[in-house]
Structure formats: structure tokens, C-alpha cells
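CHAIN AND CONFORMATION:
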Amino acid sequence: MTDYVMAIRRERRGSEPADLTQQITNVPGVMNVTPGPSGRIVISASPAGIAEVKNRFGELCRIEPIILHDLSKKGR
């Protein structure tokens, strides 16, 4: 599973369904759907799950993988 952040596209704000989080939760291969700051949604998804999320919600939301940086290795 990989973590992704979803955000409503600026031009689509206000048009998202009230049950968007529930709709995302119902996609096979998606787990840990968590509302985040500023209206974002954080999800964990399998490759098949994220493909389906992008298919269903790609025009409504920006969907990007979360990239974590290990700062403990700085200067090595």
C-alpha cells in the first residue's frame, strides 16, 4: 500500500459530493481514508485501488503520492 493525498481541484470546489469520503472508502483496494487539513483526504491504496480512485475522482481531485524525506541522514 502507498499513501496518497487527495485535494479538491480549485475549479471544482463546492461541487464535491457530501459523501465523498465514504465513496472513496468504498473503492476496492483503498484503506485508511482520513480527512486531513484544509479539506484534503489522505488514503492508503494498492496499485489497483489508486487506479480506480483516479478513474472515479481524477476530474474532481488532484491525487498525489505522499513523499516522505528522511532528514536523519542529512550530511551523510
